[in-house]
Amino acid sequence: MTDRAVIDLEWRGVFHRLSLRISYSDIESISGETRGFWGTIFQFGTAKIGIPSGEEIRLDGIFRPKKVEFEILKRRNAAKNAGVSDEDAAAAHELLKKIIAQHLK
Q1: How many domains does the structure of the chain reveal?
Q2: Looking at the chain, which runs of residues are DSSP E strands?
Q3: What share of the chain is helix, strand, coil (3-state, %, to 5)?
Q4: In CATH, what number is assigned to the domain containing residue 45?
């Protein structure tokens, strides 16, 4: 988790990595689940994130999925209350980069 998004990295082989970035503002639902004896003992489970397309992203094998659910909800609510979209943040970042680059010349 970052301050702006959830990032899921998955290795599918030695030279094949898949990454998925979900902005907090795009998260429609989140749930955490712990199943079975060993999952309960070691506090491992699955978090499921609902996105606008209707798809559900599964984050399997995570530690304390209910805590992850709570943190994502907290950050999603903060992102929605801030009122700054990812596009606006990216545009501001690019503008600052240009200003700093010009200043350093």
Answers
A1: 1
A2: 5-13, 16-23, 29-33, 44-50, 56-63
A3: 45, 35, 20
A4: 2.30.29
Nearest to 52 by CA among 80, 72, 28: 28
Contact, 25 vs 86, CB < 8 A?
Answer: yes
User: Which residue is associated with the tokens 């898949």?
Assistant: 18
Q: Tell whether the model's pLDDT for residue 67 goes beyond 80.
A: yes
pLDDT of residue 34: 93
**What is the rounded CA–CA span in Å between residue 45 and residue 58?**
10
* Averaged pLDDT, 5-30: 80
> In angstroms, rounded to a whole number, what is the distance separating the alpha carbons of residues 79 and 71?
12
Q: Note if the pTM is more than 0.85.
A: no
Alpha-carbon radius of gyration of the chain: 17
Q: Residue 79: what are its φ and ψ, rounded to 5°?
A: -65, -40
